[in-house]
Amino acid sequence: AQSVTQLDSHVSVSEGTPVLLRCNYSSSYSPSLFWYVQHPNKGLQLLLKYTSAATLVKGINGFEAEFKKSETSFHLTKPSVHMSDAAEYFCVVSETEVTGGGNKLTFGTGTQLKVEL
Amino acid sequence: DTAVSQTPKYLVTQMGNDKSIKCEQNLGHDTMYWYKQDSKKFLKIMFSYNNKELIINETVPNRFSPKSPDKAHLNLHINSLELGDSAVYFCASSPRPSGNYEQYFGPGTRLTVT
After folding, report:
1. Which CATH fold topology does B4-113 show?
2. Residue A97 has pLDDT above 70, yes or no
3. For residue A60, what is the DSSP state?
4. Is there a contact between B41 and A94 if contact means CB atoms under 8 Å apart?
5. Interface residue of A105, A112, A113 to substitute, partner B, most B CBs within 10 Å
6. Who has the most CB within 10 Å: B32, B59, B73, B109?
7. CA angle A106, A109, A110 (to 5 degrees)
8. Structural fold of domain A3-53+68-102+110-116
């Protein structure tokens, strides 16, 4: 069974400062990990994904995440946030179900990022 | 050129009614999904189809019935709507059912049951 824990439900930072959104996962297999972003009243957009290649993954809009197997973590960072980064961020783990072959995403509970002037 | 589209965007209906939500993807993907996002923003998978065949069926009341007429479409029909069905429903697609593939999400359908 797989699970995801996002350690902070809300994070507030000032514009132009760095941000860290924390995520820990649990998986029975070698997982694929994703970060998705959801702006208010919008669908989900993929920021970046890890699929057992490089452990430091670069995504869109200056975000990056580092896969640390020993810590079972996949934290998301950005060196300098913009007002437009204010949104809900979801850490996601994916396993292929052995029996049915389905690609089952398990979502974390989300972290709301607030960016202040 | 919308990749994953859903209709309607908003749906307000009364308890006991039957309603459908439609989803279409023009990405040529084999696999489609339905997710439910509750009022606390928690997202949970409901169903997945690969090439019109059901491959994931989570613990969902049998009032919910998905239907995939072809691999570009996955519709969700809900019978006897209840207050607890109020949520945002997202459709998604991926090239294959494997865990390595990212999923592309539609804009969501906000269902309100009164």
Report:
1. Immunoglobulin-like (2.60.40)
2. no
3. G
4. no
5. A105
6. B32
7. 110
8. Immunoglobulin-like (2.60.40)
